[in-house]
Amino acid sequence: MPLEGAMQEILFVVEEAEDGSYRASAAAAAIHTEADTLEDLHQEIRDAVVCHFDPGQAPPLIRLHHVRQELLAL
């Protein structure tokens, strides 16, 4: 059970790199990770969150915000 005052959710911004891999950075904490596939990235994010927080302080929910860049020519 999380301790009082603990975060209930953490947000990660996920971007695809030029080489096709994926990068994720937490919006409210200094947590960054990367992986070759989205499936691997999900596990890397979970592991990074568990390692970053003290026992009982990790938020129970992780929200991913996928950012996709597109270029349109006129």
Give the helices and strands, then pairings.
Layout: E1 9-16, E2 22-26, E3 32-35, H1 38-52, E4 61-67
Parallel strand pairs: 1-4
Antiparallel strand pairs: 1-2, 2-3
Helix and strand pattern: EEEHE
Rg measurement, Å? 14 Å
Shape: elongated
Biggest sheet, open or closed, and with what strands and sense?
4 strands, mixed
Cα distance spanning the termini? 54 Å
Mean pLDDT across every amino acid position: 91
| Order of strands, widest sheet | 3-2-1-4
Q: What structural class results from the helix and strand content?
A: alpha+beta
- The tally of beta strands, per DSSP, is 4
| Helical percentage | 10-25%
Instruction: Give unreliable regions as ranges.
Output: none
Number of helices: 1
Percent of residues in beta strands? 25-35%
Q: How would you sum up this structure, described in words?
A:
The protein is elongated and about 50 Å long. It contains one helix and four strands. Helix content is 20%, strand content 32%. It has a four-stranded mixed β-sheet, with helices on one face. The chain has 74 residues and is an alpha+beta fold. The termini are far apart. This is 2-oxoisovalerate dehydrogenase E1 subunit beta.
Give a quick precis of the structure.
With about 70 residues, this protein is α+β, with helices and mostly antiparallel strands. It has 1 helix and 4 strands. A 4-stranded mixed beta sheet has the order 3-2-1-4, covered by helices on one side.
